[in-house]
Design goal:
Length: about 350
């Protein structure tokens, strides 16, 4: 009997050891932003982004150890308003290398909210992995009276560690909501619920670490994407022109003279603009510049040949993509082709 009890105790301890060892290994790649920000006083609204390191962020939420085995790397430490192509390429390369490791089960990227929809969408298109990639940020700095960063980070790790998080593309966790990188946009300057997925809805939600899924991806992403950064050291220059009443052609002509490869129109309504601007865009197309019509409204579709005759002008309809996301898709499309019809098919596919 004693031998049996001893054997049962040994098996129990062994089982507990296996359970403890079974926690997923999640790597946190930090880029700065409000989630790592600090105020000089709790009364002020302003703060300095990227004041804390990735180790500071992890140590501030000791409950994370219950969800996963964590390690962290500081890729950048900037406010996301200063995010640029160079950091994108660096972050993508590092994320790809980390996800390729057999001992890594997923990645969490901490990022400022100003351009998080752009960086997450960029990685959604260029990372080749089925493992979870979750972006997270905060609307209040780490030193605020009611900082949202710790809870967001906890939930982001919970999502990355979830067994059903893989093969969903890049996800964004903010304010208990899980969004697809393709869908999100920041729609409010300061509110905690600033992110919305207007067209196709959220991926799911999280309640104190418990994940509930609503939707799955319906377009190519990550491992299913046709884009690659192999051998890419520089991205094509693509600029956005914002339309408004009385917009002239000067800005568009200037960009063409500067040699841009693409222009995205943040058009009024259904991707429209003034007659002078349309004439300048038509001229840009004739000079080999790829022109995409998007909308400044924030949601809805811009489809071909509605209001504007895309077939005649040689322009590309952005479909569901807002100007900032259309810019990223156009940059990557231009790495493969400058044919407007093929680029239009890319916008329809992704």
């Amino acid at each position: 009997m004693r031998k049996l009890l001893s054997l049962m105790l040994t098996l129990t301890l062994f089982s507990c050891t296996l359970q403890a060892a079974a926690k997923p290994h999640i790597v946190v790649l930090a880029t700065g932003g409000t989630i790592a920000g600090a105020q000089s006083s709790k009364e002020q609204a302003g703060y300095t982004a990227g004041s804390f390191s990735v180790d500071n962020l992890i140590q501030a939420v000791p409950q994370l150890k219950d969800l996963a085995d964590l390690s962290g790397e500081q890729v950048a430490n900037i406010g996301s308003q200063n995010m640029n192509n160079e950091v994108w390429l660096q972050l993508a390369a590092r994320a790809q290398a980390v996800l390729a490791r057999d001992d890594v089960d997923g990645v969490v990227v901490t990022h400022g909210t100003d351009t998080m929809e752009e960086t997450s969408w960029f990685l959604d298109l260029v990372i080749r992995s089925d493992k979870p990639i979750v972006f997270v940020g905060s609307m209040r700095p780490e030193t605020a009276i009611s900082a949202d960063g710790p809870a967001n980070l906890y939930n982001a790790v919970a999502v990355a560690a979830h067994p059903e998080a893989g093969k969903r593309g890049v996800l964004v966790l903010m304010n208990d909501d899980i969004h697809f990188a393709r869908e999100i946009t920041k729609h409010n300057t300061t509110h905690l619920n600033t992110f919305r997925s207007f067209n196709r809805g959220r991926a799911g939600t999280v309640n104190t670490g418990t994940v509930h899924w609503f939707n799955s991806p319906t377009t190519p992403q990550t491992a299913n994407s046709a884009f690659s950064l192999d051998g890419v050291t520089e991205l094509p220059r693509v600029e956005i022109v914002y339309s408004y009443a009385n917009l002239g052609r000067e800005r568009i002509d200037f960009l063409v003279e500067k040699g841009v490869k693409g222009i995205v129109l943040a058009g009024v309504g259904d991707g429209n603009t003034t007659d002078p601007a349309l004439a300048a865009l038509s001229n840009a197309v004739q000079k080999g510049v790829a022109v995409v019509r998007s909308s400044r409204t924030g949601s809805g579709l811009v489809v071909r040949n509605v209001e504007i005759n895309d077939d005649q002008m040689g322009t590309i309809a952005a479909m569901e993509f807002n100007p900032q996301k259309a810019r990223i898709l156009l940059m990557l499309a231009l790495l493969k082709t400058d044919d407007a019809q093929k680029i239009q098919q890319t916008f329809a596919t992704y």
